[in-house]
Amino acid sequence: MNYTKLIFSFRKRRQNLLIFRNFTILLVALVLLPAGVSAQKGNVSVNINNGTVKTFIKEIEKQTRYTFVYRNNVLNDQAKVSVNCKNKPLDQVLSQVFTPLNVSYSLNNNTIVLVKKELQQQKKSEKKTIKGTVTDGRGEPIIGANVIQEGGIGTITDVDGNFTVTADPSKPLDISYIGYKKKSVRIGASPTVRIALEEDAHVMDEVIVIGYGSKTKRDVTSSIGTYKPGEVNVRQVLGVDELLQGRVSGVNITSASGVPGSKNRVSIRGIGSITAGNEPLYVIDGVPINNTSGDTGAWGAQSMNGLNDFNPSDVESIQILKDAASAAIYGSRATNGVILITTKKGSKGQAKVSIDTNVSFSNLTRTDKLDMADTDLFLEVLNEAIDNYNLQTNSTQARIDNPAPGKAQTNWLDLVLRTAVTYTTTASVSGGTDKTNYYLSANYKHNEGVIINNLLKRYNLKVNLDTEIKKWLKVGTSLNLSYSRNNRVPTGYNIGTSVITRAIEQRPWDSPYRPDGEYAVGGQELANHNPIQALNEEDVYIDNYRALGSLYMLFNITKDLNFKTTLGEDFNYTEEHIYYSADHPYGNKVGKLIDGRKSYASTLWENVLTYKHSFLEDFSLDVMLGHSIQKDVTSSAAQTGIGFPSPSFDVNSVAAEFSDVSTGLSSFLLQSFFGRLSLNYKNRYLLTGTMRADGSSKFISNNRYGYFPSVSAGWNLGEESWWKFPQTDVKLRASWGCTGNQGGIGSYAYQALAGGGYNYNGENGLGLTTAGNRDLKWEKAQQGDIGVDLSFFRGAITFTADAFIKDTKDLLYQKPTPATSGYTSQVCNIGSMRNKGLEFTLGANLGKGSFSWHSDFNISFIRNKLTALLDNNEILTTSSMHALKVGEPIGSFYMIKWKGIYQSDDEIPAKIYDQGVRAGDCIYEDVDGNDVIDENDKQFVGSANPKFTGGFNNTFKYKGFDLSMFFTFSSGNKLYELWTGGLRMGNGTWPILKSSAESRWTGPGSTNKNPRAIYGYTWNSTKFVNTRMLHDASYIRCRTASIGYTLPKSWINRLHIDNLRIYFQADNLFVLTKWPYLDPEVNVSLSATNMGYDYLYPSQPRTFTIGVNLKF
Fold first, then answer.
1. Which residues of the chain form CATH 2.40.170.20?
2. Which pTM does this prediction carry?
3. What is the pLDDT of residues 786-803, one digit of tens each?
4. CB–CB of 594/550 below 8 Å?
5. Which residue, 393, 403, 615, 925, could crosslink 897 as a Cys pair with Cβ 3.0–4.6 Å?
6. Whole-angstrom Cα distance, residue 1058 to residue 345?
């Protein structure tokens, strides 16, 4: 055992724990500063000489947050008292004053209740039968209302709103029902009571954020999904987008890998484009952002998720604008939908402090699916492959004996994996006055990956501040600062596409170390690839700095008219560092450094005029007009340095020579004019229209502006006079709109571009690099939507359904060009496609007494197909296994169909037999019937797009306990195992999966699953891309399971703590799937035309978390 490495690992883990502890203490100290005065209110100083009790009470109320409550007959507040104390506990001072007066006191929240001691000692009143009726404000009976008295006595009302309960008349009854405010009633001597409950905020009156404003859900006429993270069952995630997985119908999120910081694939209502980008537009606190972080342009750079730069705990709500009517206000960037993220703000009241700290432990699951054949089984298969080769080719290839008899087996996968530990601490303080509110939070996350040495550290600071300077002027700011360092998992060079693949393809008798302790590298043994050395010796990290901020001024010109101007900035600076030491195989014995820099700055200036007015009693008008201009500037530089005097000097300024030097600069400008008009008649009939005009510098002047209108209407049936169901709301919706897309094509796609690096007759010069297209124009989508929103029993049960059709035309695509043109491709508008689908969401909020149950379920059925190409009969190949064709969905697999294993030579067609195919080899479908398997036999064999997706959540609460289970599911999508190659009975020379070796063909009738072993033979492995490696990737996943306990307030109030919850949570607890390997939810490529590959990247780990949430 390498004890030096073990000790170093322990010391490094201990240092991380100390950093985590110290940062937690720092966060707590920062957050407690604004609350310091309140925290000291446990002690008081009083100097009263022969004063009145009333004077004493006022002095205590002045020094603390407590208010005294007592009846007149309890205390003579003119009684004389004398108190002289300095910084004494409040309890001690109260006891000193009130004990001689025969008065008892109790502290409850912010109240001190005074009672006569003899009243406390009275016997409990006799219980008696009490009858009553519970109604709403209109006198209608409420069915199923809870009638509870302290001590657990209770019942529910019947169909007429009546109840009968045996209770203590001296204690109040608590009456509650979903959709109404809870009410406490003292019974007294009356045997019958009639209680009217006041309506609480109705589910249809919930305020949701829309583009450039907000509306109540009752007034919304478009399809908008909403998710509000709560304290229970919120996943421990790094990126804000991960919060939405499975939560909202029509939104599908696939994790690219389980490596911390990796970008996810997010789609709203299916694929939106071929190559112009399928990602939605993200708007955080009103500022559209760029969701790419960490792509510097240096060799080996990988895109990171830009949403990782924001703390998910700061999120108040997320709105998803799904249809064109809601998204068209964002015009040319809204074809793929819009996600509006609103962060938390303060509210009027004393400072509220929240601290959440937790620790997580993560492991890769289903690793048994990657069990490799041990030495004996591997050599058995290898020698069988040699025998088959010799028999078929009349060769004399020698069999291989065990090269290391008696040597222990090496489990290479175990060597690269670990139990990852993650520490997270978030602290926040919020509050406000009549004119100012504030929210401040800080966050630290230490996120280890399951691959050794993979670590992401992130620091966040969030500030939201709003203040009313004058009655007519309000100003505010929102600021997010973040820094992260991501020690990445190496890729490329000697690690290949995946470190897991590189590990399991090592031979079982090999060791990562030589007898002298040095790394074993070179020769046939490790094929120049030692994954352990790569992970330990390559220094690969990305530093990312980000600032997102905005400043606004709101002018209230009149009661109905206001003007808001906003200045926003999104700045991102990234450094990438890849260093190979001199001892590393790719360090060239002198050291090698690949260094990259990238900066991105987006500046937004936005002006919005809003007019809201009600007239003729029944009409309300809402008009919004706006203008915005946004400029993006991106610069980058990368270079490779070779030759360093010491590993300590891993900066390119001391490199002996340089190569691969590159720089880049680009800018993009978008100017927009937009408006919205909404009409409301009696809250019954709703009509909304929007228009946006976008001018983009990505297009030539005559195609520069695009126009994106929308119209939507709604009908609230529950507001009709003839509606007979007072606790039920029904709203019908219909909408149509147009949105655009200009993503993924670069800033200068319409122009022909030249670049350096060309040599002609020994002279350096410029050469054309990009074929311009002056006819390039906007990609546009028209979408129609009809929907219904139902609410039963004042929101206890809700149901939403939507049906949509979305037609996209002038699809942007990098079309290959003839080699004689001098270019490889040109951006063109080539065709059109259609998405259509159904979405359903069902929610329930039920409860009785101390028990509550919240449940929600959503499911989406979405279909995509290409409806036109330049040549409608053309099959346009986009990769070795994907193609585009009219009538087929984008993301379709196009390959040869595998049909099983030949069991005897008699089954094999003569022409195929002549190619060396024998019994035990793969059968491929000969589509054209010419007994030749080639590219002409490819066919469409499924899609990477699921047929339906969704999520199912249940949360139970009883007194202080909470239990939650959240599932997500996907069905009908295919996934290709791109990594297996020879590991699944290919050419007989690679280490082999144990399951494949044990199920290989060994004779007629032995199996129809895996082919025979034959040395150096590609028919069964790499010669054809075929469906033997293509599988159903449907799954049901337990995304999150959690249990928590909130301590009773009576336990913690004396500590001035408002809430203390302890919780345990499991993420990715299990998955049910037919996918044969690690994880079916993986998508290496974010491109619509290269979906559904599994490179065996580290998948989502199973994570167990224990944490504490504290509020005071």
1. 355-374+409-896+938-957+969-985+1021-1111
2. 0.82
3. 999 999 887 889 999 999
4. no
5. 925
6. 19
Record the tokens describing residue 6, joined without a space: 């073990």
By the 10 Å C-beta count (0-12 exposed, 13-18 middle, 19+ buried), 946 is classed as buried
Strand 43-52 and strand 103-108: the pairing is unpaired
Token pair for 991: 């280490």
| Euclidean distance between CA atoms 454 and 941, whole angstroms | 37
Share of the chain above pLDDT 90, in %: 46
> In this structure, how many other beta carbons lie within 10 angstroms of the beta carbon of residue 639?
18
Q: What is the pLDDT of residue 980?
A: 74
Domain with CATH 3.55.50.30 in the chain: 38-120
**CB distance 692 to 672 below 8 Å:** yes
Helix, strand, or coil (residue 89): strand
Decide: 549 and 286 in contact? Cβ < 8 Å: no
Report phi then psi at 62, rounded to 5: -70, -40
Per-residue pLDDT tens for 749-808?
A: 767 666 666 666 667 766 666 777 777 887 899 999 999 999 988 788 999 999 999 999
Point out which residues pair with 394 in neighbouring strands: none
For residue range 504-548, list pLDDT tens digits in order: 888 888 888 888 888 887 655 455 578 888 888 888 889 999 999
Q: For residue 438, give both structure tokens.
A: 């504030």
What average pLDDT does the segment 395-403 reach?
A: 89
Instruction: Record the tokens describing residue 33, joined without a space.
Output: 């500063």
Domain 128-196 has CATH 3.30.420.110: no
Q: Angle 649-651-653 (CA atoms, 0-180°, nearest 5)?
A: 105
Tokens of 744: 């993924």
Structure tokens at 486: 């991501």
CB 208 within 8 A of CB 224: yes
Burial 256-269 (b: 16+ CB within 10 A, else e): bbbbbbbbbbbbbb
Residue 156 pLDDT: 78
Distance in angstroms (rounded) separating the CA atoms of residues 446 and 362: 13
d(CA 48, CA 58): 12
Q: Return the CATH superfamily for domain 355-374+409-896+938-957+969-985+1021-1111.
A: TonB-dependent receptor, beta-barrel domain (2.40.170.20)
Residue of 723, 751, 622 whose CA lies nearest to 678: 622
Residue showing tokens 């905005």: 550
| Tally of CB atoms within 10 A around 291 | 22
Name the E strands within 931-991.
939-943, 948-958, 961-971, 974-977
**Burial grade of 37 (CB within 10 A; 0-12, 13-18, 19 or more):** exposed
Those residues with Cβ within 8 angstroms of residue 261's Cβ, 6 or more apart along the chain or in another chain: 238, 294, 304, 305, 308, 456, 484, 486, 488
pLDDT (tens digit, 9 = 90+) per residue, 1086-1109?
A: 677 788 888 888 889 999 999 999
CATH code that applies to domain 38-120: 3.55.50.30
645 — pLDDT class (breaks 50, 70, 90) = confident
* Mean pLDDT, the chain, integer: 85
Residue length, the chain? 1112
Cα separation of 230 and 243, whole Å?
11
Binned at pLDDT 50, 70 and 90, residue 26 comes out as: very low
Q: Tell me the two tokens of residue 268.
A: 């709203």
Q: What is the pLDDT of residue 115?
A: 79
Select from 660, 619, 668, 655 the least CA-distant residue to 640: 660
Distance, CA of 276 to CA of 1088 (rounded, Å):
9
| CATH 2.60.40.1120 domain locations along the chain | 128-196
The backbone region for 749, taken as left when phi is positive above 0, alpha when psi lies in -120 to 50, beta otherwise, is: alpha
Name the range with the highest mean pLDDT among 255-259, 377-381, 488-492, 825-829: 377-381
* Distance separating alpha carbons of residues 80 and 57, to the nearest angstrom: 12
The token duo for 324 is 């064109």
Residues 799 and 841: their CA atoms lie apart, in Å, by: 6
